[in-house]
Amino acid sequence: MATRLRVSGTDNGVHGGREITGRTRLFAVIGDPVTQVMAPELMNRLFAERGVDAVLVPISATAGDLEIVVDGLKHMGNLDGFLVTVPHKLALGRQADRLTDAAKMAGSVNAMRREPDGAWLGDNFDGQGFVRGLLSAGHGIAGKRFTLVGAGGAGVSIAAAILGAGASALSIVDVERSRAEALVVRLGAHWRALARASDSPDPASDVVVNATPLGLRETDPLPFAIDGLKPDVVIADIIMKPPQTRLLRESARRGMRTHPGLPMLAEQIPLYREFFRIP
After folding, report:
1. CA–CA separation, 235 vs 245, rounded Å?
2. In whole angstroms, what is the distance from residue 253 CA to residue 42 CA?
3. Confidence (pLDDT) at 106
4. Distance CA 108, CA 93 (A)
5. Which of 46, 68, 158, 233 has the lowest CB atom count within 10 Å?
6. What is the pLDDT of residue 17?
7. Residues identified as active-site
8. pLDDT tens across 62-78, in order?
9. Where are the CATH 3.40.50.720 domain residues in the chain?
């Protein structure tokens, strides 16, 4: 990946005017849908800034096609890695040959890379990205009470990172209560008695996080009721597009502090750079 990108002054039919050649290395982001993902813009900008001859493209794959799509990607000799978005993070955790400690803890992955021996290593940076983004915005974590709504592929990573950053309590809400309860058990092996399953956000929460896909569409219902929460609560959403979801807008109207999803991805870019060994 040391080959320099060739950048022309005009657009030659490829994104940003960059020339795609037979030496260009490939990366992908897999999801369903993928129209909302912002990783291509951010990662391709990183490749251009670092002078790396590589490109990241979005790939749409349904749950039914996921296994065959991923198997095909693994067999592409010029593909060095891929990112994973909704709803495939849990499923991809089962398709990695090896998992980092963070991915094992979460039971899901949002990034996979090809190792020198050909094996595929899975990692999950959602939690680290969320925590870094929250802290960079001036919102505290240590000693704070959290509610996490959504125990899916991103939620499990965020839950572990929140507790790892010193949160005093974590309520977990999921439409499938059994999934929330399973996550509580997993977290309990590391943080005894700090997490519990709930049917609704804890009214005493200092921060409530939406880790569900609700909000991707304007017609989506709110992922949880905001009435009854503390006036000084922080409402965080991990959805990146639209940047201001209905949840964030309605919370702001009530005078609540809000935290959007883009900082979680922005804070992951340096982590992706290190993981994918981008010079």
Report:
1. 11
2. 30
3. 86
4. 4
5. 68
6. 54
7. 89
8. 999 999 999 999 999 99
9. 127-264
Where exactly does CATH 3.40.50.10860 map onto the chain? 15-124
Topology (CATH) of 127-264? Rossmann fold (3.40.50)
Query: What pLDDT does residue 9 have?
Result: 33
Per-residue CA distances from 51 to 9, 44, 57 (Å): 16, 10, 18
Q: Is the pLDDT of residue 3 over 70?
A: no
Chain centroid, CA 203 distance in Å: 26
CA–CA separation, 74 and 68 (whole Å): 10
pTM of the model: 0.88
Q: Does domain 15-124 have CATH number 3.40.50.10860?
A: yes
What's the CA gap between 30 and 120, in Å, rounded? 15
Angle at 3 (CA atoms; ends 5, 35), nearest 5 degrees? 50
Torsion sign across C-alpha atoms 256, 259, 91, 99: negative
Predicted confidence at residue 8, as pLDDT, reads 33
Distance CA 56, CA 62 (A): 19
Residue 197 β-bridge partners? 172
CA distance linking residue 240 with residue 154, whole number of Å? 13
Collapse the DSSP code of 216 into the 3-class scheme (helix H, G, I; strand E, B; otherwise coil) and give the result: coil
Site of tokens 């209560």: 177
**CB neighbour list of residue 195: distance below 8 Å, 6 or more residues apart:** 159, 163, 169, 170, 171, 172, 183, 184, 187, 188
Instruction: Please give the C-alpha separations between residue 23 and each of 33, 56, 135, 181, 273, in angstroms, as whole numbers.
Output: 29, 14, 40, 48, 20
